[in-house]
Amino acid sequence: MKNSPSLDEQLEMHRKMVVVRRLEERLGELHKAGKTRGPIHRCDGQEAVGIGATAVLGASDFVTSTHRGHAHYIGKGVDIRGVTAEILGRATGTCGGRAGHMLIGDRDKGMIGGNAIVGGSIPAATGMALSIQVRGTADVAMCFFGDGAAQTGICHESMNMAGLWKLPVVFILEHNQFGLTVHHTVQSPVADLSLRAAGYAMPAEIVDGNDTVAMYRAVATAVERARRGEGPTLIEAKTYRMQGFSTSDMGGYQSDADLADWNRRDPIQVSRGALADSVSTERLDQIEAGAVAEVDAAVEEALAAPLPTFELFTRSSPYATAPEAV
Amino acid sequence: MAMMRYAEALNQALREEMQRDPSVFLFGEDIGRYGGVFKVTKGLMDEFGESRVRDTPISEQALAAMAVTASMTGTRPVLEIMYADFMPLVLDALINQASIYEYLWQNVTMPFVLRTQGGGGAGAGAQHSKSLDSLVAHIPGIKVVAPVTPADAKGLLKSAIRDSQPVVFLEHKLLYNLRDEVSDDPELLVPIGKAKTVREGTDVSIFATSRMVLESQKAAELLAQDGISAEVIDLRTLRPLDLDAITASIAKTHHAVVVNEGWRFCGYAAELSATIMDFAFDDLDAPVARVTLPDMPVPYAEPLELSVLPNAARIADAARATLK
């Protein structure tokens, strides 16, 4: 099938999903043990969206993410050890502990970056696509955002301009059903938010967000279209947030039936099923064990790493108001 | 040197920088075909094409956020926000985006310029007449400039475009037709962060930016008639402040008047006053005087609007009061 991932790519997506899942599970444990700081937004159950979509991109493409970006970070190639250490607030983190898990950015990897102002990732990617168009390269910008962010005014402004100027941006609507605790049916009159794409003259596709291969195929078509200069695409990835809004979520608003239903469609199990015909169980187990070991090592390394020491930021003169304030 | 209007000086700066650097591009409402509602971008779409000079939808929030990330990825955007009164719409892009990434990520730069114009005196009413300097000068990581002369407008805009950090460039609607000599040397830049003494004096220092520099110069004339020698400092840059110029002047005059066309409470004049207290308290013979807009909307009818705008007479009165 056109735009299908190779077996190697499929295995790499599988491995990265397990990396992200293991990271989320370890973060849950560490939170319970009081070893994390602040809220952490886990993406358990949504891994296939970020991993499948970013698998299509090249090194010079850009990605903008959300407050729930672990799969996007790992998918775009940010080092798991740096990400883990950053989440744990260590000097060895991707951003030296200055950013935290919601705001990780790695310019060299084109991941710029996490954005915890809901909707903020949408104009961010659109602006990068504008830059790409002005400079005339064949790169693309990829925007992850959620069904909650889709209700912001800035979403409309950005998509309108992206469609108007045929900007090389791919919008990945990670529809996980909830904006914080509020169900999408209480936020929007339509279940399929991709209906809106028609108003921006851009194609849209609804994709099973728990299937990396489906994500890869849809996104590959969208990325190729963007690289050809034909403009943006809206991919609506239907998925489900299995672990609540954040580690501070007290729950009570997700139905057991929904959770059980989506659990049966766990993206890692979907991926295993898709690979079963081509790869032995032993090999899959081996890949998964390797991913788990890599995360566990990253966690141990981060916990042993030094905490950052404070330095007033003076590299930029406008950060300081006057010399004596430095 | 050539005589030109403030708007033409800005236009020349944009043209020269676009000729010099293909990564510079302009976007904003009505700036392309029409040339901008204040004609600052006149003729540039014809010269540089529709990709580098873009008319945009009315979408200030997204435009400002796009300027941030476009600048992070290899271009130097210059965004025009038509009125400073619309700056509340772009504050997320400045406060939650542009202000944080150089610190958090360190290996990114954001060389964009956000041009806007504010100020009263044109009968534009409460939503098109404000100076909101303090809103942007409040933000760490953002440079803010507000030139008054055509020459400084050109030289500072060129510096702003070449700067590696975000710059908010504040123009004033009553300055666009001001004519003066401007250099045609494309490499003559006016440095950001440097004030200019526009009138030397020994009795009182008046600090101002933008159109308030002109009112301060008129105030100095009024004071001279009373035998008072006022020094007028055009700060030119609101952030980062030229602290040396401020303290040196106060060391000489021992009296300070700070002028700003924005609101008084938590305003830019309040910050200047506090900064002078921090760094020049021992040199002061009297409390710092503030001349600002009162804390109210800018009214429409001429006698009402003129009643609220700071002017030469009020600045002179404030100077006299500090000398009593």
From TrEMBL, chain A:
Domain Dehydrogenase E1 component: 15-309
EC number, UniProt record: 1.2.4.1
Reaction catalysed by this enzyme: N(6)-[(R)-lipoyl]-L-lysyl-[protein] + pyruvate + H(+) = N(6)-[(R)-S(8)-acetyldihydrolipoyl]-L-lysyl-[protein] + CO2
UniProt keyword annotations, A-Z: Oxidoreductase, Pyruvate, Thiamine pyrophosphate
Coiled coil: none
Cofactors required: thiamine diphosphate
Taxonomy, superkingdom: Bacteria
SUPFAM superfamilies: Thiamin diphosphate-binding fold (THDP-binding)
Any one GO molecular-function label of the UniProt entry: pyruvate dehydrogenase (acetyl-transferring) activity
Listed InterPro entries: DH_E1 (IPR001017), PDH_E1_Alpha_Subunit (IPR050642), THDP-binding (IPR029061)
Gene3D superfamilies referenced in this protein's UniProt entry, alphabetically: 3.40.50.970
Stated name of the protein: Pyruvate dehydrogenase E1 component alpha subunit
TrEMBL record, chain B:
Keyword set, alphabetical order: Oxidoreductase, Pyruvate, Thiamine pyrophosphate
The organism's place on the tree of life at top rank: Bacteria
Gene3D superfamilies for the chain: 3.40.50.920, 3.40.50.970
Transketolase-like pyrimidine-binding domain location: 4-178
Molecular-function GO term, any one: pyruvate dehydrogenase (acetyl-transferring) activity
Broad class of enzyme this protein falls into: oxidoreductase
A Pfam family: Transket_pyr
EC number: 1.2.4.1
Cofactor: thiamine diphosphate
SMART domains the record matches: Transket_pyr
Cited InterPro entries: THDP-binding, Transketo_C/PFOR_II, Transketolase-like_Pyr-bd, Transketolase_C
Name this polypeptide is given: Pyruvate dehydrogenase E1 component beta subunit
Organism of derivation: Ancylobacter vacuolatus
Phylogenetic classification of the source organism: Bacteria, Pseudomonadati, Pseudomonadota, Alphaproteobacteria, Hyphomicrobiales
